[in-house]
Every structure is written in structure tokens, then in C-alpha cells.
Amino acid sequence: MAYYLTDGIYPKWATFIQSISMPQGPKAVLFAQRQEAIRKDVERAFGVLQARFAIIKNPALFWDKVKIGKIMRACIILHNMIVEDERDGYSLVDVSEFQHGEDHGNSHVDFTYSTDIPSNITNMMDARSRIRNRQMHQQLKDDLVEHIWRRFGHGDDNN
Question: What is one Pfam family matched by this protein (predicted)?
Fold first, then answer.
């Protein structure tokens, strides 16, 4: 099951993995450190992309994963190209003529693409139950703690 790294304000659903607020023992401490660091990095990077590209500000709930992936990769590539161009400097160009005022939300979002959407109410309710299952949430979190420990917990040379 896919999951999202979150902070403590999210419910304990199988798809949301929070840090451990008061970690006890080296495995829990390592998991908390890595989860919090990665979550902050992702939030920062996503915030930069949202600020630059209106398409990322819009909900993508009904888009298929392939399309979302292509949009995100395109935005990351464009962002990197812009940063590289700005680093080289273009002081001879008056950029004010290219800058827009307020964002009026005129971006068009195509909601016609959809896959992986449950085809009927039974499937939808089953998916909802699995996601909200607290035992599944705890099992996934325990599995992630063990995975992080196996991958990074064997001395300082792997961190």
C-alpha cells in the first residue's frame, strides 16, 4: 500500500505515516530522525514547485499516476533549467515585462483522465476501510521502522 510521510495532525490511516513523537530505543529514534528529515525535504521542494507552477497547485485526485508523474518531472526539469539560467544571470534583460501581477487562477485543469478509481460503491467502501484500518497503519509503520533500521542502522558509516 502506498503511503505519505506526514506530521502528527493527520489521522492514523494506513496511507499516512507520522513520525514517532517520543521515540524509545535506537530503531525508533533512527526512524523518527529519517522520517522527519525526508518529510521536510519533500515539503520544501514541493512548496518551491507549487510557488512556481500553477498546475501543481490544482488538485490531481482524478488524474492517473502516469500523467501526474510526467507533469511533476516536467516541472522539476523546468525548475532546474530556470535556476541554472538565473544562476548565469541575465541582467541585460528587463524581467519586469515578463512578470505577471496577481494569480487569477486561469489555469485550465483537465479532469477527464482517471484510472484506479473504484468502479462501484462496494469497491470504494472496501478501499476506504483498508485505508482507515488502524492495525494496517501500525503494521506498515512497524515494517518501515524495521526497514529503516536494516538499511541505515548499522553504524554511522551508513547514515
Answer: Plant_tran
